[in-house]
Amino acid sequence: MKVYSPEELAANNGKEGKPVLVAVDGKVYDLSASKLWAGGTHTRRHEAGADLSKWIRSAPHKLDVLERFQQVGVFQEKSEPQLAAPRTKIDLWLDRHPFFRRHPHPAIVHLPLGLICGVAIFEAAALITGSAKTEWAAFCCTALGVVFIPAAMLTGYITWWINYGAADLPVVRKKRRLAWTALAVGCVAVLLRLFAVMEPLGAADPYFAVYLVTLAALVTVVSYVGYLGGTITFPYK
Q1: 147 and 189 in contact (C-beta within 8 Å)?
Q2: Closest among 180, 182, 201 to 190, alpha carbons compared
Q3: Three-class SS of residue 34?
């Protein structure tokens, strides 16, 4: 059976009519017949011609999906220098529990994203209907969303370190800055609503106008952070 070096595997990336080959646990599979790998890209995240051993265990499907395809060779990867001891132990643990390599951040970040983006709907409905209860629901979504921003940021930093070695990537740098901005703006919005706004639906209350502007800024920043996260998980280009 053919032995593929990293260079030979990388050459079979599904581009320009080349075969779609991937390596998993030292075995090389030909996925050219899969429509999900058309053009050598899968779910806009994974590229053919690579070793996907670490990533396939955190995928929504199991390893037995590879049994549908032909094994065309074995993968001979180059020996790499040993990592520092603390990181090596973490990597071994993540290999046994691949869920924690990528999923905790998306699982947590969707909570503040959903809550804060929902604020715009509730607040607009409150202004249109004059409903104090709906306005209170908007505030509760704001407060809960802000409370969960630090947890989303923490898991984001951990995921960034585990998967990207804390590399200074432009999109991650922008996400970090905007996340801190969202936390600051969110705290201001909550404090304004609790201690400054006297008439939550009163047009004559100047602090209520400031509060609405703060909410708009918060929803905008958080929405853009979510968009940037999407460009990492599912690249648009």
Answers
A1: no
A2: 182
A3: coil
Mean pLDDT by 10 residues, the chain (237 residues): 92 93 94 91 84 77 84 81 59 82 90 96 96 96 98 94 83 95 98 94 90 97 93 68
Alpha helices by DSSP H, listed for the chain, are 6-11, 53-56, 85-96, 99-102, 104-129, 132-164, 170-195, 206-233
* Structure token pair of residue 155: 């898991």
Indicate the DSSP class of residue 20: B
C-alpha span between 10 and 29 (Å, rounded): 13
C-alpha 175/C-alpha 172 separation (Å) is 5
DSSP lists the bridge partners of residue 13 as: 20
Instruction: Give the pair of three-digit tokens for residue 154.
Output: 């923490």
Residues sharing a CB contact under 8 Å with residue 201, sequence separation 6 or more, in sequence order: 126, 127, 130, 132, 135, 208
